[in-house]
């Protein structure tokens, strides 16, 4: 009887999901009933600003469909359901009657995991800012964020096979790629679901886009551009077991082709566990200890650390406070995957990469002047920020408490101004993290309802679904519908300047993406060119001849004698305009060396030099110069061996 009374009450409460008096292209004519209210009035902003830029907020990291991940029963509730809100926003069956079997809640959030399992229509205990296993991305809550000024949302398809395998409750396979495919399909189904409310295909506000032209058109129409990404621990089956890769380059190529066909345009190469592609940036504290255990279950090896060679470092594990780095970086297979993404014009996510992996990734991107690099939710060492901006990449910060978010935005403000870029946030909702807690009703500068959206087009009141109304001041960021409220809190505490940078976020994100789309790889003028050297290391089993540095095979190399003042000379065949040189060093690298050019092989001009070389992949850029001959001249070795180069590239563009 009580259940029936509550259902009738909910029907009455939700009879008019939006404003009863409002009508327009942005108000659906076929919304199901009952449903959530949106609590927003005003036509969404259309078009571009006075400078021709699209305008709006960007969430660079969200997980719309993670309820389909981890075996299908770890995160409870759905972002939409053909059967309606009562089906979409209900708890997992094992959480009834009191949450006693909400084991993941207990493990990750402390307490005893007990909670009122009922979602619709009462929502007594969830969604909440600290509830990790309940749906936060119901479509109407995302609609509220869109109406509140958001114009780009990146939906990262996510899962983890180990979490799935060890979790007690599941109703499907733990294969990661199977889950990724399902989540992609469900995102398209959600688009269709919303379209039907507006009269048919293409008419809804939720638009999946696969290129920047589509994205800009969608945003100019005042709608939400949705980009598909992938964040999973073992993509393409590329796990490692006892340091042995379980995939090969063909698996990677097929996997990238499949993801691209699904519409995926950004991707993490590793996440949480070291895999056959790259080492990860550790989680810290007790979470790190738990994930390291998962790594051992998956790979047979635990994280291994070393002293960091530079100022960047990975997170300390457990209670340690020492700055340590993962010994694992970007593997040969990982570099193959990276270059495969570049070939397909995809954006590379470097959050979750170890310092060593991220550094090498940035080296590769810089060597090709490839701008498609993203830090989407604050999981890279912040010392990489300027390198990302210099390439043309995009940076977003995790959706943390307003004070912390504002402080970090201020720390990087000068860099954003220098490079003329906007800012973004990564909500990571449904990502098993945590979200901004309530500041309290009596905290200074509370959000006062109703308030005007960041872009000025809409007025938002408190978010209401069923019998529950949320207030950011007292509830924190409990679900996606409270993202505009959180942005308003940032404005109140940090000023309009922070919000202005956030409103430039959609444009900056699209510039990074379009730079990737337009990128044309340069022609390597040194490919298979004639090469000679001051000396060559002798080995009875393999050749280290000079030509090995220009043969296009990173598995071969030129190696000099074990002394300084060594050189490698490349004959380009005729006079060419050269602007940059890339040098992929073997372990025996040059600490001090210079790049010299000549037109006649007699008179040499230094166009670039360094005394602080540290090995790896170096890119030397200099004023365009006409030359037939180019020489890498070693002055001081970085090791006790000679100079050894796997590949040298010479480029005119």
UniProtKB/TrEMBL annotation:
Keywords: Signal. Pfam families: F5_F8_type_C_2. Residues 1-20 form the signal peptide. Residues 518-653 form the F5/8 type C domain. It comes from the Bacteria. InterPro entries: FA58C (IPR000421), Galactose-bd-like_sf (IPR008979), Metal_Hydrolase (IPR032466). PROSITE patterns: FA58C_3. This is F5/8 type C domain-containing protein. The lineage of its organism: Bacteria, Bacillati, Actinomycetota, Actinomycetes, Micromonosporales.
């Amino acid at each position: 009887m009580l259940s029936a009374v509550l259902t009738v009450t909910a029907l009455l409460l939700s009879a008019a999901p939006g404003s009863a008096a409002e009508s327009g292209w942005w108000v659906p004519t076929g919304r199901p009933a009952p449903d959530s209210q949106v609590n927003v009035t005003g036509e969404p902003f259309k078009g571009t600003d006075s400078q021709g830029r699209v305008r709006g907020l960007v969430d660079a990291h969200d997980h719309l469909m993670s309820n389909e991940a981890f075996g299908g029963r770890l995160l409870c509730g759905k972002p939409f359901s053909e059967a309606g809100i009562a089906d979409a926003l209900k708890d997992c069956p094992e959480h009834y009657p009191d949450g006693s079997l909400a084991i993941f809640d207990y493990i990750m959030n402390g307490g005893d995991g007990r909670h009122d399992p009922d979602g619709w229509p009462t929502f007594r205990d969830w969604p909440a800012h600290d509830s990790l296993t309940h749906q936060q991305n119901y479509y109407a809550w995302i609609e509220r964020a869109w109406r509140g000024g958001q114009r780009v949302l990146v939906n990262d398809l996510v899962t983890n096979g180990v979490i799935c395998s060890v979790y007690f409750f599941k109703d499907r396979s733990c294969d990661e790629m199977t889950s990724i495919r399902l989540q992609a399909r469900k995102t398209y189904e959600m688009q269709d679901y919303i379209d039907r409310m507006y009269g048919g295909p293409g008419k809804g506000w939720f638009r999946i886009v696969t290129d920047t032209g589509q994205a800009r058109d969608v945003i100019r129409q005042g709608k939400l551009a949705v980009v598909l990404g992938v964040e999973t621990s073992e993509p393409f089956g590329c796990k490692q077991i006892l340091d042995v890769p379980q995939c090969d380059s063909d698996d990677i190529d097929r996997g990238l082709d499949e993801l691209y066909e699904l519409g995926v345009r950004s991707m993490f190469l590793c996440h949480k566990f070291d895999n056959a592609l790259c080492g990860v940036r550790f989680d810290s504290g007790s979470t790190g200890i738990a994930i390291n255990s998962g790594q051992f279950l998956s790979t047979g090896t635990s994280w291994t650390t070393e002293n960091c060679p530079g100022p960047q470092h990975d997170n300390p594990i457990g209670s340690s406070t020492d700055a340590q780095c993962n010994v694992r970086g970007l593997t040969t297979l990982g570099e193959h995957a990276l270059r495969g993404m570049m070939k397909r014009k995809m954006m590379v996510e470097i959050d979750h990469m170890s310092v060593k992996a991220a550094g090498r990734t940035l080296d590769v991107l810089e060597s090709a002047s490839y701008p498609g690099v993203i830090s989407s939710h604050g999981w890279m060492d912040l010392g990489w920020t300027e390198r990302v901006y210099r390439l043309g990449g995009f940076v977003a910060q995790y959706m943390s408490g307003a004070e912390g978010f504002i402080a970090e935005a201020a720390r990087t403000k000068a860099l954003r101004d220098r490079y003329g870029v906007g800012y973004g946030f990564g909500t990571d909702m449904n990502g098993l993290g945590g979200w901004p807690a309530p500041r309290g009703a009596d905290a200074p500068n509370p959000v006062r309802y109703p308030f005007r959206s960041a872009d000025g087009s809409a007025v938002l009141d408190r978010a209401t679904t069923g019998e529950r109304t949320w207030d950011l001041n007292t509830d924190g960021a409990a679900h996606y519908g409270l993202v505009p409220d959180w942005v308003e809190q940032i404005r109140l505490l940090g000023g309009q300047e922070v919000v202005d940078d956030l409103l430039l976020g959609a444009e900056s994100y699209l510039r990074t993406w379009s730079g990737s789309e337009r990128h044309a790889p340069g022609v390597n003028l040194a490919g298979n060119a004639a090469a000679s050297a001051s000396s060559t290391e002798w080995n009875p089993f393999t050749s280290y001849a000079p030509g090995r540095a220009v043969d296009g095979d990173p598995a071969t190399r030129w190696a000099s004698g074990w002394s300084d003042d060594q050189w490698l000379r490349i004959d380009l065949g005729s006079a060419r305009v050269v602007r940059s040189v890339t040098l992929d060093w073997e372990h025996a690298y040059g600490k001090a060396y210079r790049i010299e050019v000549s037109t006649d092989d007699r008179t040499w001009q230094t166009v670039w030099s360094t005394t602080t070389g540290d090995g790896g992949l170096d890119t030397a850029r200099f004023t365009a110069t006409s030359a037939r001959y180019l020489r890498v001249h070693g002055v001081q070795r970085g090791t006790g061996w000679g100079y050894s180069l796997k590949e040298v590239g010479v480029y005119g563009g």
